[in-house]
Structure formats: structure tokens, C-alpha cells
Amino acid sequence: MDLEQLSSRGSALEDPTDPSQAYQPFIIMEELMDKLKVLKYGEEFIKALKMRPLNRYYFALQTNPGEQFFMFTSLAAWLVRKMGRQFEQPQEYDDPNSTIAVVLDATRDLGIPVDFAPNKLKQGYGRYAIYILNSLADKAMEHTKVIWKKPKPPLEVETEEQPIDDEAELLLEKIEEEMAAEDSDDDEDNLLHIDDLQNITNINKSLLESQKQEEMLESNTNSEEWRLELERVLPKLKVTIKSDSRDWRAHLEQMKQYRSSLQEVMSSASSQLQHLSTDLGNSLNKIQSRDKFLNSQLEPLLYQYRTVQDELAKISEQYREVSGGVSERQKTLARITDELESVKQEMEERGSSMTDGSPLVNIKKAMGRVKGDISSMNVRIGVLEYCITQARLRDKDLLQNELTPNTV
């Protein structure tokens, strides 16, 4: 699903008295850099004009006002051209006022509100320059139909934990037992364990029960030979008991040992702890007595500090209330100052045009030419009147000559 286009934080300049506005240019500058990357300014602007790439806070901090102003005007011109409009590339030695006027005219034509003085853009950095560039970048993204989409997180593949097979545990236990048996001494091979004795006893009982019905056997062994054999085998008949870690008797013995060792340690440490406790109590009593003494000595100062702090809070509140009106008056003063500058400029232009004598000289020259034309026209009129008079006289003479013979 397509998302709506990101709303520009710099669409309207906010109250500068807000403390958070000190960090607003940095945030808007980061958004502007992301938009410029989407508009491919690296290939179409940086490489085409052979400029250095911008950092993420280039227009938020003052580094080189001349370079920043040229970069600002060049980037604004590129964004306007990105929307298919005509805009000449600004040069480094152009008049800043005319360049700013052209940029603001193009900005107003695009429907972007501009409610600040043009001289705010002369420094080439700050919240006003970032506002203009951010607004132009938004318009360029709308013109190029850039669409923001929801991020798609990578799919997580669930891995099922395979249960540990009981047979594997049994095999592991068998391997450990075999390794323990290999590491044991060779003498242990001849040891007779308690479990072996029990097994031998059970086997003997079964044999006796099976041979119960059989006839009794008589031993042919001599007692001396039996005694010698017993003496020979007796050193090899060793009974060992395996210690089990889960046996409660072993834990009980360990607990008894730990208890006895703790009692021995406590007998020597109790006197030291008692002495330490006595020293700590004395130190605490001294600290409490000194604390009370300091409180009694500092009580007037603390009361005075609280009263001064309350007065400071009241004065700070009054200052905030008054500063709001001062900021509004500063805005009004800036607007009136700009209007006064424009009126002064217009008056200077009119005064320079009034003191200039070239129009009067031109008027006098024109009047001389007009008078000359009038005099020449008068001469022509006189000549024409003379010619007409001569023609009339000639016609009159002719009429008289024609009438005279008839009368005779």
C-alpha cells in the first residue's frame, strides 16, 4: 500500500521564541538531504556543476557565507529546472538582491508562501534558506511523482527445534563410561566391587537351588592348601565403593564440614564485626550531630535562597510574557524597516531622475526643431500664397483680355 507523501516540517516558519526551534533546522536539513538523494542530485547537480557534495548540516551552520549563498542559489535553480521551468544558472559574481528576487518570484509562482524579508536569504544559511530549499524539493518530488511505500521487513523463517533423542543421551553416557574405564589404572581390573559380590552371591544361590536335588559333594581340598591359596589371593581382593554425587550422605558430610569451618571463621570475625559496628555507630552519631549543626547555621541562608528563587521564578515568568510582545514588535519593526528601505530606494530613484537635466535639454532641442519646422512651414505657406495670388491675377488678366474685344 502506498503511503502519503511526507509532510514538510518547514512548510510554515514557526515562532522563534520556542526553545525547540534551535534544533529544527538540523532536523529539516536531514530531511532535505534525503529528498535530494531521491531526486538524484549527486548525478544531476554535483557532477554536472562539479561541486563538492553537501554534508547533512551544510545550511544549518555558518561556515562560509559566500560559498553557502552561491550553493543555495544554484541548488534552488536546479530544483526549479527539475520541475520543467526556465531558470538561468546563477553566477558567483551576480547581484545578490536580483538573484534573491528571481528565486523568490519562482517560489511564489509555485504557490509556496514567503512571509519574511528577502534580506534573510543573503547569508546563504539558516532556517529561511532551508525552508526555501525544502519547499522546492517537495514540489520537485510532486512533479516527478515520487511515491513513498511502506518498508517491507524480511520474512523470518521459523526453525523447529529438534528434540534430543533419548538414544543419543544413552550413547553419550556409554561413551563417557568407556572413556572413564580406559583412563582408569590397570590395578582396577583386578578389583572386586560390591556389585560384583552381590552378583556372585545371587549366582551361587541359583546354583545351590539347582543342585539341591543332586547329591552332596565332598571337598578333597586340604586345609593347608586352602590357607595358602587364601593368603595368595587376599591382597588382590579389594572392595571399592563408587561415590555417587546424588547420594545425600555425601552432601550431609560436606554440610557438616562447611558448618564447622563457618563456626571457626565466625568466632574470629565476630569480634572484628562488633568493633566495626561500634566504630560505624560512633561515626554516624558524629555525622548526625554535624548535620544538625550545619542545618542550624545554614537555615537563614536557605530561607533567603528560597525567597530569591521564588522571586527569580516570578521575574522569569514576567520576562517570558514580555518577550512575547517584544518578538511581535521586532517582527513589525523588521517589516516596517523593509518597507522604509523600499520607499527610500524609490525616492532616490525619483530624486535622481528629477535632478537629471538631460530631459530639459532634450525638450529644448525638440522645441528648437519644432520652431524650425514652423518657420519652414510659414515660408512654404507664404510661397504658396504668393503663387496663388499670381495665379489669380493671371486668371483675372486673361478674363479681362477675353472680355475686351467683345465689347468693342
SSE diagram, text form:
Layout: H1 24-38, H2 41-49, H3 65-82, H4 96-109, H5 127-143, H6 166-183, H7 194-210, H8 223-233, H9 248-355, H10 358-407
Helix pairs in contact: 1-5, 3-4, 3-5
Order of helices and strands: HHHHHHHHHH
Shape: elongated
The mean pLDDT is 76
Largest β sheet strand count, sense and barrel closure: none
**What's the total helix number?**
10
Structural class computed from helices and strand pairing? mainly alpha
Q: Distance between termini?
A: 126 Å
Rg measurement, Å: 58 Å
Helix content: 55-70%
Portion in beta strands: under 5%
How many strand segments?
A: 0
| Uncertain residue ranges | 1-14, 160-172, 185-194
Task: Write up what this structure looks like.
With 408 residues, the protein is an all-alpha fold. It has 10 helices and no strands. The longest helix is centred in the C-terminal third of the chain and has 108 residues, at 248-355.
Task: List the defining traits of the structure above.
about 400 residues
Brief write-up:
Helix content is 68%, strand content 0%. It has 408 residues and is mostly helical. The chain is elongated and about 220 Å long.
